[in-house]
């Protein structure tokens, strides 16, 4: 079969020509094979039978080799020169062969008329559709000549039939060729489209690879450990830094599910639930958490991976080695505790000795001695307040100040304040007025100690800056869910430009007042931090020359704000 | 003098020891001072048991909170009034419920003297509320 297709196939660019010449090749080879076989059979028959005379076989031995030679010649013409010429020659050869196939009568008027249909129909397929008419004409001439040779009239119905067959062949071959051409055009367009699409795809793929390469490079290079979880909460990406930070090979992490990851024994047992919670519910605004991983402290943050259409398909977690920072923070906390103790202890001694001297525990003093003792006492107290402010600030920053909520009698808040602040106000010639609005509940949920700190701080400030008039404290309801503490004074007031800064640490209006009034301005910033810790807010209203009012608003049902560690 | 109730002052700072002793003596207590945690830990198991203990948290060798735990867990000593003195407000918060009183340093002479006077067995008042300074 392969030999056959190699013999019949032609390497020609025009597909129509190739198709026709291939068909002709098949026919020519078939005729060649049948003629050869026929000649051979005839020879065998002649050799075995005595009845046949050599004369009877004259036709076979003349036409057989001639046909074989003709087909070889046609094949060569068809293959190497022209299909058209070969086609005409083949069909003409056929017409000539027909003359010897039957009697002239049978050919022109009898049973063998049908054989002429073969070249007429084949012409349309082998050469071109119009060629059918050429062979219809040639066939007509042939049968007319054969009829005339027998003294018969031309066979008009047969001739008409030939032309009708030619017409049908022409029509069908024509439409077939058109259909083939259309199909070929369609194929060509399709090929083109496939080609374009393939090119586009390969370009997109290249772009994608470049982008992925960039992302990959970033992930490889970044110092933070990165884990990406898919929607099924399995790890799909673990970068090299993740391996360096955790000491676990990134390959080992791939495919691991979130639960298994959070149960790893390297993670400090107490930190596991927090880590699981963070990774299970990643949020864009979630604060970073600390996780102890073996001897390291890691800062972990997680965020959902959201597509442009707002669809979540997994999450990304970033692990940062926080060991050094945690150590520094611990050192700072230790420092705060140490300073707290080391500074207060000697100051306590100074203060108490001054007090004991002044109060004549060691014997009576004259006026000047009493005055000196009093000065030592007051100045030590000032120094102590500064230290306390600094330590409070440091402790708030270290996140160590805790709020403890309890049911508190509203009256107690005011009573405690009066106990502490009445004397200082009176000493300065100021009136301290307090008021609880009737709508305020008799008990409030709050941290009385912190409220006390806030009130003392605000009232102390008010007394410090007011030279005459009064300081008033009022508790009222700002709205049905919020209660408020307002501390007003008749002091110099705070200029509008400065009002925004009063809650900043170390701020005070003008440096002169600093020296005159003492303190280093941490008070208000601490008040603000405490208020924030309790879920409340603090506002300042002030008119220069008339006085200031600080209003603290707090929720009646407090929710503790977790102060984030810095 | 032996009929005075005994106050044990556990405080590592020499000056504060002296001040606390003065304040307690002014409130009519007999005083005994101990300057380190280890000795204090030993002393609270021995007679005579003190009526009141002034306990600093920050002590050499044995921490004040351990001593407090020891005092409160032993039936013999659990009745002793313990006044914690500390400079650390956070520790003060943590021990608010365990000790009888927590005083945050600085502690004034008058403050401790008045508190001691109220703790004195000769006074027949009921239990006191928590006093705090700060």
What are the key terms here?
heterodimer, A: alpha+beta, 5-stranded antiparallel β-sheet, 5-stranded mixed β-sheet, 59% helix, rod-shaped, B: alpha/beta, disordered C terminus
Brief summary of the model shown:
The complex is a heterodimer of chains A (566) and B (134). Chain A has 19 helices and 12 strands.
Structure description:
- The complex is a heterodimer of chains A (566) and B (134).
- Chain A has helices at residues 2-8, 15-48, 58-80, 83-101, 104-109, 117-126, 131-149, 156-221, 240-246, 250-253, 258-262, 272-280, 323-358, 367-397, 410-427, 448-465, 496-499, 511-517, 523-533; strands spanning 225-229, 235-238, 289-293, 296-306, 312-321, 406-409, 431-436, 443-446, 470-479, 482-489, 537-543, 547-555.
- The longest helix of chain A has 66 residues, at 156-221.
- Chain A is of the alpha+beta class.
- Chain A is 59% helix and 15% strand.
- A 5-stranded antiparallel beta sheet of chain A has the order 2-1-5-4-3, sandwiched between helices. In chain A, strands 7-9-10-12-11 form a 5-stranded mixed beta sheet, with helices on one face. A two-stranded antiparallel sheet of chain A has the order 6-8.
- Chain A is rod-shaped, with a radius of gyration of 56 Å.
- Chain B has 134 residues and is α/β, with parallel strands linked by helices.
- Helix content of chain B is 35%, strand content 19%.
- Chain B has a 5-stranded parallel beta sheet with strand order 2-1-3-4-5, sandwiched between helices.
- In chain B, helix 3 links the parallel strand 3 (52-56) and strand 4.
- In chain B, helix 1 packs across helix 5 (109-119).
- Chain B starts with 5 loop residues before the first strand and ends in a 15-residue tail after the last helix.
- The interface between A and B is medium-sized, with 27 and 20 residues.
């Amino acid at each position: 079969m392969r030999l056959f297709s190699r013999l019949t196939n032609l390497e020609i660019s025009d597909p129509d020509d190739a198709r026709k010449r291939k068909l002709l090749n098949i026919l020519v080879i078939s005729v060649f094979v049948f003629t050869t076989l026929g000649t051979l059979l005839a020879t065998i028959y002649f050799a075995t039978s005595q009845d046949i005379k050599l004369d009877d076989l004259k036709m076979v031995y003349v036409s057989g080799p001639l046909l074989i030679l003709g087909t070889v010649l046609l094949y060569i013409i068809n293959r190497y020169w022209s299909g058209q010429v070969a086609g005409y020659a083949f069909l003409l050869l056929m017409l000539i062969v027909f003359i010897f196939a039957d009697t002239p009568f049978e050919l022109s008027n009898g049973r063998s008329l049908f054989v002429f249909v073969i070249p007429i129909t084949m012409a349309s397929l082998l050469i071109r559709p119009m060629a059918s008419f050429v062979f219809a004409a040639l066939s007509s001439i042939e049968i007319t000549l054969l009829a005339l040779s027998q003294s018969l009239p031309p066979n008009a119905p047969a001739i008409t039939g030939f032309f009708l067959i030619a017409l049908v062949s022409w029509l069908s071959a024509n439409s077939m060729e058109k259909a083939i051409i259309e199909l070929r055009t369609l194929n060509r367009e399709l090929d083109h489209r496939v080609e374009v699409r393939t090119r586009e795809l390969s370009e997109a793929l290249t772009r994608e690879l470049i982008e992925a390469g960039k992302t990959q490079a970033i992930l490889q290079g970044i110092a933070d450990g990165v884990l990406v979880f898919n929607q099924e909460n399995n790890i799909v990406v673990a970068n090299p830094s993740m391996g360096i930070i955790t000491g676990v090979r990134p390959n080992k992490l791939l495919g691991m599910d979130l639960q298994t990851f959070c149960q790893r024994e390297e993670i400090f047992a107490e930190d596991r639930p927090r880590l699981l919670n963070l990774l299970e519910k990643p949020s864009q605004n979630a604060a970073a958490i600390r996780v102890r991983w073996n001897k390291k402290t890691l800062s972990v943050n997680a965020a959902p991976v959201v597509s442009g259409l707002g669809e979540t398909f997994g999450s990304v977690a970033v692990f940062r080695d926080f060991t050094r920072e945690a150590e520094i923070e611990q050192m700072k906390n230790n420092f705060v505790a140490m300073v707290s103790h080391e500074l207060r202890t000697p100051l306590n001694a100074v203060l108490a000795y001054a007090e004991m001297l002044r109060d004549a525990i060691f014997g009576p003093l004259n006026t000047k001695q009493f005055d000196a003792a009093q000065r030592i006492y007051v100045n030590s107290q000032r120094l102590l307040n500064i230290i306390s402010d600094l330590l409070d600030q440091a402790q708030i920053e270290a996140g160590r100040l805790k709020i403890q909520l309890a049911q508190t009698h509203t009256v107690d808040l005011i009573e405690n304040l009066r106990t502490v602040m009445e004397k200082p106000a009176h000493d300065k010639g100021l009136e301290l007025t307090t008021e609880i609005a009737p709508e305020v509940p008799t008990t409030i949920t709050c941290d009385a100690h912190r409220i006390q700190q806030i009130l003392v701080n605000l009232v102390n400030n008010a007394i410090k800056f007011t030279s005459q008039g009064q300081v008033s404290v009022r508790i009222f309801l700002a709205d049905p869910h919020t209660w408020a503490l307002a501390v007003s004074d008749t002091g110099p007031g705070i200029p509008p430009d400065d009002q925004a800064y009063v809650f900043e640490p170390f701020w005070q209006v003008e440096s002169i007042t600093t020296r005159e009034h003492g303190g280093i301005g941490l008070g208000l910033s601490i008040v603000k931090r405490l208020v924030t810790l309790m879920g409340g807010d603090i506002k300042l209203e002030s008119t220069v020359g008339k006085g200031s009012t600080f209003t603290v608003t707090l929720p009646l049902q407090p929710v503790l704000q977790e102060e984030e560690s810095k | 003098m032996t009929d005075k109730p005994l106050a044990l002052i556990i405080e590592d700072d020499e000056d504060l020891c002296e001040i606390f002793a003065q304040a307690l003596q002014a409130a009519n207590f007999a005083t005994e001072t101990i300057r380190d945690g280890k000795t204090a830990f030993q002393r609270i198991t021995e007679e005579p048991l003190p009526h009141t203990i002034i306990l600093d948290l920050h002590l050499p060798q044995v921490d004040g909170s351990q001593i407090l735990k020891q005092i409160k867990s032993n039936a013999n000593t659990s009745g002793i009034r313990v006044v914690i003195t500390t400079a650390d407000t956070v520790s003060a918060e943590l021990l608010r419920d365990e000790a009888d009183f927590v005083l945050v340093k600085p502690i004034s002479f008058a403050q401790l003297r008045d508190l001691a006077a109220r703790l004195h067995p000769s006074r027949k008042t009921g239990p006191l509320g928590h006093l705090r300074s700060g």
